[in-house]
Q: What sequence folds into this?
């Protein structure tokens, strides 16, 4: 039995929660995963996992072994990296998940720069507005906007999105330009974003001189994906709120028009998030540093005055 390999397999089973998910993420047969775990338990003479038909849970001995194993594996990877110079030439497969708008407008257009700089890193790029479980989905890092629900993850704030209220010129020609957010409750069509996971609707939000107004209804159209949301606004479906980053090119081209610009919307923080490993792998560190620099170079992703100048 390859003890290091068995430790890696055991750690993956614990993180994934099932043998099937672990086998898929490791790209190996489920039978091989089972065989390695059985051999590890025989070697240690303890039961590490409790198996049920639906899920695997960790025994007390298994939890203690997992904590030590993860640290040892991280030290082992660091040792190999230092010997093989992987820190100066990061390599391996990197699994990243990014929101749809950031993927389309920022990551994908600049991805060739990262690939040229790090030719030995292969990227699996997941693009979705859905919440990702980094551990069970075996994802190395994600880029997401909004405050984080899972405080156990490591989050690095890399930008801020300033939201503005917009509509298509033809919509405004048909329905008129509102002068106050209260007018959106009657006589206008509103386009609302809702969560693809919880189905929670996010109201149009307006702040001015301590006054806060939220408009959630009537919602003519609700959309749960960023690019589709902008398409609905461009098609004249109604009034909505989007970040300057999302709509900058459409404002410049006259396809969208800003309204109610004396009312503000709170900045939305953007984070790059990764699991709380004590040792950040060279490939993840390379991607995180690249993303931080990419965001810093774009004023539309810093919010506030920097975004308003563009």
A:
């Amino acid at each position: 039995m390859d003890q290091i390999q068995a430790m890696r397999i055991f750690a993956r089973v614990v993180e994934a929660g099932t043998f099937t998910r672990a086998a898929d993420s490791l790209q190996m047969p489920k039978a091989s995963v089972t065989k390695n775990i059985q051999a590890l338990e025989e070697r240690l003479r303890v039961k590490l996992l409790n198996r049920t038909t639906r899920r695997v849970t960790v025994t007390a001995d298994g939890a203690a072994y997992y904590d030590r194993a993860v640290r040892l594996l991280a030290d082992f990877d660091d040792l190999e990296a230092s010997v093989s110079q992987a820190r100066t030439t990061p390599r391996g497969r990197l699994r990243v998940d990014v929101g749809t708008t950031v993927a389309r407008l920022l990551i994908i257009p600049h991805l060739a720069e990262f690939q040229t700089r790090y030719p030995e890193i292969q990227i699996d790029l997941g693009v979705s507005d859905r919440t990702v479980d980094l551990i069970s989905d075996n994802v190395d890092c994600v880029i997401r906007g909004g405050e984080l629900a899972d405080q156990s993850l490591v989050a690095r704030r890399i930008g801020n999105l300033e939201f503005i209220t917009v509509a298509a010129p033809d919509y405004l020609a048909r329905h008129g330009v509102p002068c106050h957010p209260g007018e959106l409750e009657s006589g206008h069509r509103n386009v609302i974003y809702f969560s693809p996971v919880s189905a929670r609707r996010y109201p149009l939000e307006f702040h001015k001189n301590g006054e806060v107004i939220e408009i959630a209804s009537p919602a003519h159209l609700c959309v749960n994906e960023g690019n589709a949301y902008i398409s609905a606004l461009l098609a004249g479906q109604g009034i909505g709120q989007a970040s300057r980053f999302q709509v900058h090119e459409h404002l410049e081209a006259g396809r969208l028009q800003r309204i109610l610009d004396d009312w503000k919307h709170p900045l939305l923080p953007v984070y790059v998030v990764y699991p709380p490993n004590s040792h950040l792998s060279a490939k993840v560190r390379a991607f995180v540093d690249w993303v931080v620099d990419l965001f810093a170079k774009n004023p539309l992703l810093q919010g506030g005055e920097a975004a308003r100048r563009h």
